[in-house]
Amino acid sequence: MIETLRKAARSIGNPSLQAWNEGGGKVLGYPCTFVPEEIIDAAGILPYRLRGITAGTMSIGDAYFGPVICSFPKCILQLAGQGSYGFLDGAVVVNGCDSMRRLHECWRKASEDIPGTLPGFFHYMGVPHKATDYSIEWFKEELGILARSISDHFGTPVTTDSLRRSIRLFNEIRSLLSELDEMRMSETCPVTGSDAASIVLAGFAMPREEYRETLGKVMARLRKSKPVSDGKVRLMVVGSASDDADFVELVESTGAIVVSDCMCFGARSFLKRVDEDADPIEALAERYLGGNLCPRMFGWYKDRLAFVRDRALRSRVDGVILQNIRFCDLHGSENGLLERDLEAEGIPCMRIEREYGPLVETGRIKMRLDAFMERIRTVGGRRS
Amino acid sequence: MRESTREYRFDWMLWSILENASRSTDGTPKEYRSLLDLVPHFSEVLDTFVRQGEPGLRFLRLIARYADMCSSANERGKLAALTTFCMATPILHAFDVVPVMLEALTVLGTVVLKRGTSEYLDYCCEVGFTETSCSAQRGSLGAFLAGGAVRPDFVVCDTPGICDTNANSFAFASAFLDVPFFQINYPPTLTDERARAYHRADFASLVSFLEERTGKRLDEERLMEVMRELARQDALASELIDLMRIRPCPVPGIYDLMLYGGRFMMSGTREYTELLESMLEVARENARLKRSGTRTGVERARGLFCYIDHYTTDARFWDWMETNEVSHLGSILFTFWNADAPYARGREEQGYTLDCSSLDAALDSLCDQMSRMPMIKQIRGPYDAPGMWLDDVLAEARLLQADFVAYIGSMGCRNSWGMNKLLVRDLERQGIPAVILFADAFDDRVASWETVTERLSEFLTVRGIIS
Question: β-strands B326-328, B154-157: how paired?
């Protein structure tokens, strides 16, 4: 069962997605956790989180983006340009960060040179950088515009009822993933970090009903599984978008186990539920903008520090890996603050800057990880 | 950071240098020439301004006064706000708050300090800030993080939604220094009713924040006074830009820096108005004599810089332009978008109009002004959307008859590097020669000034712009 999820996590396409496509199902891509998947799902369309894994070259990405840009959107553009995203019927781009928002222009312009690479539906959604009454109101309107645009383009109405159904489905998934999260943080963690990452990542790429069923079965098995964390150094991974289960596997190859995270492809994507009783669009706006833990929400560092600290303590980690993709200044500099503040509380931290995509830097990262593990083993992990 | 660097406050050093520079011509011309030999690391930049005559000296006095305002804010019992160049400052003046502008201080440090700002740039990284972040803020931020400059009472920025890298510097400063933070946040559109309502709600929220932090009500009389001065300044700047349309361009290249530098630091002050008046006098006279504003009075080419300038040590950028008889037609920092500006003709709805008829009208118009500041207007949405970067560059290139357009930015500028290839391609398709210069405007270590000029010269020669 978990093998299905592992495969879906490590590739752009997967058999379930293919079957969905072949059955005439539509797929809409989005790059960032500020896009409510429920709205897409409510139109009967599969929400697919855009990723850049498997990009083996940057020839297209580099032709449009400049050199000092995060490699995550570049890899997405690369895949789009080389046709890997041919299964997309639409895409929504948001201003999650400066690099990501320019995917909108670069993708459009690339499609002028490489016809057929731009999906038929291409939508830009503005997301405020703060959660106040008027910014949530703005965001609510943006969600309404998105819902109407999807309805108009695909001819499948997004109704209050369909939204409520989708919210329930996604909340069920969130509940299961939250249970997985608690299991991982416990002393008797029954799953490796790389498998946990695969379980979560697959959920961004599979038809959600099917994913819920599969996830339910995986969870039933995990509830009965023996701990896999005994004798291992417990780590938490924090920072930039990381959708590479191989990266977690690399961390764990040093004798560690990743028992917790604070990343948008991880816990940050599922921990908060959507209010099922409120007006659906209002509830989605509140959930997706209010309290979002991405550092692009400027001025809420203390809240994010509290969140990371709380998870580090609850999961009894020996250390925290603070990673960022090169040119991701938002996470990179916040990692600097987190390092200062967590180390002051006796939590060992390792900051690492890396490229997104295939583990081209495995040797360098492994050396840093080994040094960090040595520090934890000789000096000791978190001081309780 | 070296101990010796820590011994002197960054802002005090700037003030001390600039204050002395502004008095360097108080003696005889012979004394001034002798003085230049005594300040070998500063003589070029000093002379760049002094040889402009009255406008240059006024500018030196203006920036000396600004450096003094910043460095002595704590001692004078004034509240200091760490802020950004694209924050319109009248609202801060109305609360008697000193706007301590990171980018302005970085430029001053880069241009006048013997070693530039490299130690401050690097100190940011020492304390956890990323080396890939924008050098426009890092160049002075390091001094604040090291405690080597005035301590800000709070941080106010208006770049979220425009340039997150910029905003991130201010968020980092707030968290690192543990001082309150306020952000104005912009939607991706400008002129529609939704965007307008959002701007106003956000601006009202800023006013509440300032009331709370200062414990004062807004000083309406002071605000109106600043706004009236600002309206006069808008008119003067518009005339100056209008003169730039003439071939040869009668406006000296360094006026570009003086216009926007003065505006960022001292808008709404009498000193800035007088500076603009003196600049206009020279430009009008040049126009009457059909002289170019370059040192030789000859114009070989006209260049528009579609983003920012290069603030290399000793002001060599402007010197290079003059030496090569290339007229500087400004950059986006040059455009503030009052509805009467020459570049706003036919696109007045994208501009602002200052309205002092009531407090509400004044605040609304200040909000409109703020949301059209340089960079805020151009890169808030897709570069090729109406009224954004491409539209503005094309309109200015045509209005000012630019022979070429050049991009210079910083390595931290994710936004412009995310679309400058597309912009340049579009400009070329419109028949405007355009070039991207891979360099950092504030950090010579990325690409030396010599490398930059070599590339620019090569571009101008190969494209037949300069023979």
Answer: unpaired
